[in-house]
Write a structure and sequence with these properties.
single chain, 552 residues, mainly alpha, Rossmann fold, Arc Repressor Mutant, subunit A, 3-stranded parallel beta sheet, 3-stranded antiparallel beta sheet, 23 helices, 44% helix, 11% strand, binds glutamic acid
Amino acid sequence: MTNEEFAELLFPDIKHTPDYYEEKYPQRDLPDKAEVTRIGPSPTGFIHLGNLYSAMAGERLAHRSGGVFYLRIEDTDNKRKVEGAVESVISSLDYFNIQFDEGAEVDRQAGKVNYGPFYQRQRAEIYQTYVKDLVKRGLAYPCFCSEEELNAIRNEQSEEKVNDIGYYGKYAKCRNLSMEEAAERIKNGEPYSMRLRSQGIPGNTFKFKDEIMGEVSLPENIMDVVILKSDGIPTYHFAHAVDDHLMRTTTVIRGCEWLPSVPIHVELFNVLGFRRPKYAHTAQLMKIEDGKKRKLSKRKDPELSLGYYRELGYHPEAVRVYLLTILNSNFEEWYQKNPGVPIEEFKFSLNKMGVSGILFDLQKLDDISSNIISAKDREEVYEYFLKWMKQYKPESVPVYFGDPDKMGRIMDLCMGVGQKRRRKDFINCSQMFDFLSYFFDDIFTPEYEFGKYENMTEIIAEFKNTYDPNDDNQTWFNKLKAVADKFGYASDMKAYKAEPDKYKGNVSHIAEIIRVAVTGRKNTPDLWTIMQILGNDSCMKRLDKASEFLGR
Ligand code: GLU
């Protein structure tokens, strides 16, 4: 039996040869140096921050160079498929504004050629064509070993204490089956997978340049890895080689958990006669806990899930800026020096990416977020907050937004609109929701944080008597001073500082008492404005409520 005949027996339905696909999916017509990158999520769960980190690197690299960024659904593992996962990937990319030019589910095509299908399960025929060709060239063979047999081989290797555990050399039972014998077993209906006949030499190493990690030395692959499973669907390794070749990827950006598989991939590209893409393996995201760095974990760290940022209502722009901050070490400086310049203009590059343990710091994200929100138009923040609330707190929309004019004034105040400097009170929608709650009588449930001052009830009563909602800020403050004088608190700060023991406190303590009484909080934006927004009735009721609390 010849190799040709054997290949025909194995793949009778495959009529094309690799040349057909080489022609169907030609080199892309792109400018020099344009990069083609992709994100290849498996629909086995939800994409997380690590995926978004790599995706953003890919998207930036492609779009900065006039290239193409595409989405490929790596669904070869049907058993672990999760309903809705593809939709969730697309909606996450969309939400964080990671635009892909081609790919699954949507009618997106970057150029004249459609490089799809972009679902791997729809590409079975293509993979099989390439495996058939490998069989013709004696570089792939069927393997009939069952799970039990494979386990037995592994156990034998453990007992012999060999370095390499796996299917290779003398352990690769089916490698040396004659074609006749294999043909007989196939005719008898025995299930089989297809394996690579590895050409690697044990002990050989090769040098490999990773675009992020730099040069690494790796062992040559010696394993006869499975390339097609018994259902004719490829393994990740084989699908990666064929797809990234035919979709003309120039740089494969993926998590560093794939770095150990590079020897397999290099051999596959070699035996298939493909030009290898560049590789960029992204470092693991870490966090600091109890002074120690550790990997972010799906189980322990909600911040790894992208839903976390949406539910808390972080502005996608803040997440993008933060991701760029951890993606490229020179981004932060550029960002500070170029206020108002779209971040898309930053010259992103792979060689400025961290090579190990990227520290993910929520505090830093919060800082970035409050800066970004404070620089926005009030109308935009208003709309953004309203949209979030409709989705996540619909029952509270009438409370917060029932009086749009009031909400507008609140936002102006908390953002410092019209002030010398913008305020940075807002971080994300969930925090805004809590932060603003004291403005609404329906939900105002103060947990008073009064300090230890003398005559607080009397002070509140006196203030209440003299308060007039028509007073301007200065008159209002003068009245506070008068209250201070009346109760032995210094109305003049200089005098107080010179002889603090002479007084029970000073006018800022009076303001604090009133602030806590009216808002339940020790720190708020300008109190006079808050009282203007609340209106006289509400203020009076709140002052009474606080007195009652103090009198208890
Ligand atoms: N499907 C792979 C994963 O989800 C993608 C790896 C790659 O980008 O090549 O891990």
